Amino acid sequence: MTNLSDIQSAEIEQARQTVMPTRRSVAEGLEEILFQAIPVLDHGFVRVIDYMGDDAAVVQAARVSYGRGTRKVSEDRGLIHYLLRHWHTTPFEMAEIKLHVKMPIFVARQWIRHRMANINEYSARYSILDREFYLPAPEQLAVQSVQNRQGRGDVLGADEAAQVLSLLKGDAERNYDHYLEMLNHDENGERLDQDRQGLARELARMNLSLNFYTQWYWKTDLHNLMNFLRLRADPHAQYEIRAYADVILDVMKKWVPTSYDAFREHRLEAATFSGEALKALRRMLAGEQVEQSQTAMSKREWDEFLAKLNPS
Amino acid sequence: MTNLSDIQSAEIEQARQTVMPTRRSVAEGLEEILFQAIPVLDHGFVRVIDYMGDDAAVVQAARVSYGRGTRKVSEDRGLIHYLLRHWHTTPFEMAEIKLHVKMPIFVARQWIRHRMANINEYSARYSILDREFYLPAPEQLAVQSVQNRQGRGDVLGADEAAQVLSLLKGDAERNYDHYLEMLNHDENGERLDQDRQGLARELARMNLSLNFYTQWYWKTDLHNLMNFLRLRADPHAQYEIRAYADVILDVMKKWVPTSYDAFREHRLEAATFSGEALKALRRMLAGEQVEQSQTAMSKREWDEFLAKLNPS
Amino acid sequence: MTNLSDIQSAEIEQARQTVMPTRRSVAEGLEEILFQAIPVLDHGFVRVIDYMGDDAAVVQAARVSYGRGTRKVSEDRGLIHYLLRHWHTTPFEMAEIKLHVKMPIFVARQWIRHRMANINEYSARYSILDREFYLPAPEQLAVQSVQNRQGRGDVLGADEAAQVLSLLKGDAERNYDHYLEMLNHDENGERLDQDRQGLARELARMNLSLNFYTQWYWKTDLHNLMNFLRLRADPHAQYEIRAYADVILDVMKKWVPTSYDAFREHRLEAATFSGEALKALRRMLAGEQVEQSQTAMSKREWDEFLAKLNPS
Amino acid sequence: MTNLSDIQSAEIEQARQTVMPTRRSVAEGLEEILFQAIPVLDHGFVRVIDYMGDDAAVVQAARVSYGRGTRKVSEDRGLIHYLLRHWHTTPFEMAEIKLHVKMPIFVARQWIRHRMANINEYSARYSILDREFYLPAPEQLAVQSVQNRQGRGDVLGADEAAQVLSLLKGDAERNYDHYLEMLNHDENGERLDQDRQGLARELARMNLSLNFYTQWYWKTDLHNLMNFLRLRADPHAQYEIRAYADVILDVMKKWVPTSYDAFREHRLEAATFSGEALKALRRMLAGEQVEQSQTAMSKREWDEFLAKLNPS
């Protein structure tokens, strides 16, 4: 597994050497890992490039203060929990983070649906992509789920898994070979045939499949980061994007530990009950035995309701 | 070239039969083509699904009026030109359009960079994509431009073009065959091997290449539509997305003819001169012979400056 | 109470006379009230100016369909409830509404915090505002709440209420008199003193107080409308903006009745329980008597928790 | 002129004492002034609270680099100019700034129209505003412009100016006196009448006029900051918001000097010519004498065209 070239590692190491004084608030947990590539999947990574603010910035903005705005740790913690619980989300927009992410194109296509972010993507109109494509680990090769039409079921048997991997790998290699051939380039960026100029890059790239890696700079604020994580660190999200969300959850924890705790408590581990679900809940708390047929909930909503009360 | 199945054409024809009375403003030019598929590229299309407002809505919003807000045609026209010329863009946000677009994935990836829009895309996690992929017409197969690193140069020779098309077609067909094989599906959606369940759709799709077609509902307001068109109907845009932009320009003309004229005049056919370019221009108008070396413009900016004054 | 002048009423009535055929989907409940002013507070109103789509548009977008996209009523209803319950909100962005709203400036200042909307406001740089200001009804004159620092407590006594209204009215009248005097205008827009030109409108307006009425065109999509209503139809919202939200809830019901039901069920009447609250709930359902001190909840969160279980 | 209390100045001074090491890029020009209040108008200010990135961040994002991304100064400068000239604006979204601004409410109402920003405003539902209101300097008291219905003309004569200031001051003082009376508070926050609780803050504030000061934290990216400055540092913007824009232009110069130069060159000092204007320009360059009547430009557009060629 290689996620970085030697040259890239050296550039990162060099960038980490420069340390400067600043009056801004500093998140020590993030400084520790700044610029380093945290590996994800077989060739991907997440790197923290820059950030603005920390837990105190949230508190400071909520109080519109002149100084640092923080008070006692317990008060600040209480305020952050209160803000999240009551959906007062604007103070969380006051902290910002910038990541460098490398991920398969099909992951990038899900990711970009989060519009409240800034993106600069590596351009395959302009540059030539590397021979890097995602091959799932065998334990991720699952059958189509029958219950959930957008999900995965059991893991494939060993033979079928081997066959799938062989097809994915063979096609990706061939597609990349032909990509280079159309570009009239060899693996080292040299022209293959001196008499040909090669197809335009913006056209040749269409031969690559959706498991090829792309990369971008992605910048968002803490409020929108939490929206991203709430949806993408969820068990219903596709495994491949969840792998990135899980890494970013760790980044968030290093950056804004109090907001992270509040986010776990009031979003990730929370559950919402509809009006009908609340009615059923109140009857159950009063000691009544409630059946689905006695409520206005559909079978599906009822099952979800029970799952919230009795998590597996 | 097939852009629609018979079933789809019938559904469209049926939807067009229903006509209802409304008090809202009606754009007759758009009603004419509502729901119809306007073909783009080899399998793509643009369909107008819905719209809100027309030129009068722009005028009405600019005047915050109680009634329809329009006055004499010449006054309304003057107001619309004034608004666009002076970048008073909020009244153009008051008209909205919704399109159904089918396009290659690499085009969708450029398109989605326009964030101020609403999108619902056909889900390949949930459904199986059709065997439809883009093959450029031979006259679109151009070499990599040397001047412009993101563009195209001359058209490929016939032999090289044939070879490129053969590679693109062969790889797309093979990728799709293997996609079905991994899904354990035949072309008609039947299970191939009764003993296998097939790989999850969200995984199998990664074997498709970027020239496969996807589709989405795309909704935006007139202001953001013009931003899209200004960038994507531009000669520097990649041909394939420009093909869509050109079709949408025609749609815009049917929808809001006065705004369309103003947009051509003050955006598409307009040119911006920097402070240094204006200084040079004033000297030239005073009869002076000006050279690049006598200005603070770079060689590249100077060439762009001359091109604005002497369009080819 | 006057919310419209005779001229305005006539313009509205005239606009309502024009009925045209359209192929677009039509929401009959909204057509009924289109353009009419629904009064709010003492001089305000909400008018529906235009709309795009209906419940079927939500369904159609979720299915990315070629025709109208609807199936059986029960299936469409189930889909809409499912989408809202699972925060799949993009299909709700496919329906759009445009309102003309007249409201006190302090209400407009809360309203505009909802950024995902398009606004054209009546310009007091350009035009002269009318002598129209908000005076609360006596039963709305409440003391500062002690528990909730952003809320209201009991209603003022009659004497204190009369004194407050007298101050509010006297100051607003005087401010407006002086506004006209600075503009050198009388009530009918005639120049007062022929030798003076009058202060610029953009300056004179600063003498008006925050209870003066302004008006704007406001356009948003159904998803963002629900966000607005969730926050502004809430008991914690200030009464004056809630009065508008309540009227718009009725508008929503006429426009998209199925989405409205789902919104009541899964947002307005729903409640979210944090991870700690869920733990307590599970213990209570198991028959245990739970005290705040046995949980990790703060006193405040605990009280909110009990209030969700036992609404007053 | 007082823009800060002693306590506030002390809090700011204390915050400036803390200096920490960071690996992030540091803009030395901004560090110099961080947290300090730059006075604007009679009681307002702009304070830089935080920032992320600098000119190098723009370059780094445009190149999607692993290290700092910068090359030779001249190359970086050329790239930034190229990006701005060609409206490649996404790299400028990668730098972010956070300001604390105190301004009259009517200025805040113009400011907030820029939606692509994050805001936390001091809440008058929650807190009591200070007795601080804007009174224009006499040289800013201008008559209504006749040519430009949203602008100012000549300065008022001394007598009329004195009368206007007397009205503005008298009304603001009286409105504030009554605000306190309704709140049942004296100037020091003490209860006036022990038997009254006082009107709710969210209601009493409506008696304040639009020249009272409010304050907020405002955070935006460099791209949107430039949009703000292009519109608000423009001579057509109202003087009072322009005073803030001019101060922020200086801040921008300290923060990102290369982007600032490019912004001056390609936005502030640039001019756009419509298709018709370009045609006229080409004829003039060919030595022709062109009159408005020989073009398709309106009288107004023609005058604007000449003004671009011959700035006063």
CATH architecture group name of the largest domain in chain A: 2-Layer Sandwich
**Mean pLDDT of chain A, as a whole number?**
94
Number of helices of chain A: 12
Low-confidence stretches of chain A: none
Oligomer: homotetramer
Strand order of the largest sheet of chain A: 2-3-4-8-5
Number of E strands of chain A: 9
The coarse overall form of chain A would be flat
Bin the strand percentage of chain A. 15-25%
Distance between the termini of chain A: 34 Å
Query: Per CATH, what is the topology of the largest domain in chain A?
Result: Gyrase A, domain 2
Order of helices and strands of chain A: HEHEEHHEHEEEHHEHHHEHH
How much is the radius of gyration of chain A in Å? 24 Å
Please explain how this structure is put together.
Four copies of one chain form a homotetramer. Chain A folds into three domains: 1-133 and 211-270, Gyrase A, domain 2, CATH 3.30.1360.170; 135-210; 275-309, no CATH class. The longest helix of chain A has 26 residues, at 158-183. With 312 residues, chain A is an alpha+beta fold. The mean pLDDT of chain A is 94. The first copy, chain A, contains twelve helices and nine strands. In chain A, the strands form two sheets. Chain A has a five-stranded antiparallel sheet. A two-stranded antiparallel sheet of chain A has the order 6-7. Chain A has helices at 6-17, 28-33, 55-63, 73-85, 105-111, 158-183, 201-204, 222-232, 239-255, 257-268, 275-285, 299-309; strands at residues 20-22, 37-40, 44-52, 96-104, 118-121, 142-144, 152-155, 213-221, 271-273. In chain A, helix 9 (239-255) crosses helix 10. Chains in contact: A-B, A-C, A-D, B-C, B-D, C-D. Chains A and B meet through helix 5, strand 6, strand 7, helix 6 and helix 7 of A and helix 5, strand 6, strand 7, helix 6 and helix 7 of B.
